[in-house]
């Protein structure tokens, strides 16, 4: 199979083996070189500790695309969208200003508002979970307080609530005080 490979391709494999720096690439090239030396696929798979199917995939990739076919490619997926400088600037904005100061609707930062800020500032869309991670990286954490402080007297709590309602009739957001 690979034993009858033309000498030029074997030399290319040997040169690629000398130049390769990544472990996976070295392993693939080594496996193919062993095949050119007359080893059977089962033996090579055992030597380099891979499955026979993986070895066959490498052989196919080498035959179709040459050395490029067995070199490591970049990982697919969602890569970082913001640069480190942008993240630093975002951290400064979030920690020093409220959403309303940055023309956003709200008084407290949450993942949705962070996503809106990123969209406004950098024209990059961030999903809620990624924005939550950014908030966490900026030093914020989510805390859901208990509804009632058990050490507080019921009469004091009711009196405070009534006073608060009288003093803030135009508040859009529901304000809850806990102590």
Most strands sheet: none
Number of domains: 3
How far is the N terminus from the C terminus?
77 Å
Figure out the total of helices.
9
The mean pLDDT is 83
Report strand %: under 5%
Helix-strand category: mainly alpha
Whole-angstrom Rg: 31 Å
Uncertain parts: none
Order of helices and strands: HHHHHHHHH
Helical residues, percent: 55-70%
* Approximate shape: elongated
**DSSP summary, beta strand count:** 0
Could you please describe the fold and organization of this structure?
This protein has 9 helices and no strands. With 179 residues, the chain is mainly α. It has 3 domains: 7-70; 84-137, no CATH class; 145-179. The mean pLDDT is 83.
Provide tags for this entry.
179 residues, mainly alpha, 9 helices
């Amino acid at each position: 199979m690979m034993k009858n490979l033309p000498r030029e391709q074997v030399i290319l494999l040997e040169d690629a083996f000398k130049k390769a720096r990544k472990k996976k690439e070295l392993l693939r090239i080594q496996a193919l070189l062993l095949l050119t030396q007359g080893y059977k696929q089962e033996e090579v798979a055992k030597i380099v500790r891979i499955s026979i199917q993986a070895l066959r995939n490498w052989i196919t990739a080498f035959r179709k695309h040459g050395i490029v076919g067995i070199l490591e490619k970049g990982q697919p997926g969602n890569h970082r969208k913001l640069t480190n400088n942008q993240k630093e600037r975002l951290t400064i904005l979030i920690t020093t200003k409220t959403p309303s100061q940055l023309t956003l609707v709200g008084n407290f930062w949450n993942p949705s508002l962070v996503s809106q800020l990123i969209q406004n500032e950098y024209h990059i869309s961030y999903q809620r979970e990624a924005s939550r991670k950014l908030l966490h990286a900026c030093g914020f954490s989510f805390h859901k307080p208990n509804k009632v402080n058990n050490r507080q007297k019921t009469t004091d709590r009711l009196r405070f609530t009534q006073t608060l309602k009288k003093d803030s009739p135009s508040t859009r957001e529901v304000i809850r005080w806990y102590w």
